[in-house]
Amino acid sequence: MDQPPPYSYHPKEETTLYAPPENGREAEILGGLAQDFDITWGDGRGKFHENGTLLTLSLDKYSGSGFQSKNEYLFAKIDINMKLISDNSAGTVTTFYLSSNGTAHDEIDFEFLGNLSGQPYTIHTNIYSQGKGNREQQFYLWFDPTIDFHSYSILWNPARIVFFVDDIPIREFKNMEAFGVPFPNKQPMRIFSSLWNADDWATQGGRVHTDWSKAPFVASYRNFNATSCVWSFESSSCKSDPQLTGIDNAWLMKELDSNSLKKIRWVQENYMTYNYCNDNWRFHEGLPKECTIRSPKRARRYR
Fold first, then answer.
1. Measuring CA to CA, which of 4, 23, 65, 211 is 20 to 30 A from 103?
2. Catalytic one among 26, 107, 177, 269?
3. Which SS3 state, helix, strand or coil, does residue 247 take?
4. Is 107 a catalytic residue?
5. pLDDT band with cut points at 50, 70 and 90 for residue 30
6. How far apart, in whole angstroms, are the C-alpha atoms of residue 72 and residue 168?
7. Burial class (CB within 10 angstroms; exposed 0-12, middle 13-18, buried 19+) of 177
8. pLDDT of residue 103
9. For residues 2 and 182, what is the distance between their CA atoms, to the nearest angstrom?
């Protein structure tokens, strides 16, 4: 994904789970999201609240903010509840994604592109493997994501990547390595989230800029859950054969059933605004290989 500018970046800032005492009160040990994430940049603009169960990122004209997971994962089903910036969020980008390190990195992206008041957010999804992305699909939502919290989830197992909104699948990307299509399955990834200014491109192609009189812009997070294979000391917490892991790790073999495929079709037919697999002008020398592989079970191309 496009990264936020390097302003006010302070690695491993505010990582403690210990909240110092205020006004003579006893110190507080934080739980919730504070157990899973470190706020890594933003010079105090990222904060834990409510004993660590609520996390907020803020953006002003001087800096954004961000956090990352304490753990690395090699396959996971992750869920988090988010409430996005309300009112005029034009020019802002809120992200929630998995990424490895290095130039040949893997990445699985949720990006939420702000808009003018009353105009819909755009959900931007992308998948990188071995440093190559260009697999964008974009969607509008069927609800206002700024009024209340909604769940956003990524299923990443050896066979597929699926994006979910409120448990409704919106996109599936299958492992097609047998056809020469790279798939992220060898590099452990951390979870990252950030809130930053990208008004040169984020809203209506950069035609609408951030209104700093509305700052600070705030995005909120709670109720994180990860069913995962944690990567630590060059080893996975999951057994090598998913079939031996038992029902608790059934997600490692999860496929989308017919009802889930109907939901994907509903979302893509009614709310998809861009699909790289349909962009013949951009890929004038031929669409990416995964766009032309037809599943024997499905005649239509929904990925």
1. 65
2. 107
3. helix
4. yes
5. confident
6. 26
7. exposed
8. 87
9. 20
pLDDT of residue 85: 97
Catalytic residue among 13, 14, 72, 111: 111
Q: What average pLDDT does range 173-187 have in this prediction? A: 96
Distance CA 125, CA 111 (A): 6
Residue with tokens 């130039």: 103
The SS3 assignment for 245 reads coil
Give φ, ψ of 251 to 5 degrees: -60, -25
pTM (whole model) above 0.85: yes
195: nearest Cα among 106, 96, 120: 96
Indicate if the pLDDT at residue 294 is higher than 90: no
Would you say how long the chain is, in residues?
303
| Pair of tokens at residue 85 | 């910036």
Please indicate whether residue 111 is annotated as part of the active site: yes
> For residue 124, what are its two tokens?
């931007």
Q: How far apart are CA 186 and CA 136, in angstroms?
A: 22
pLDDT band at 240 (very low <50, low <70, confident <90, very high): low
Q: Residue written as tokens 């861009």? A: 274
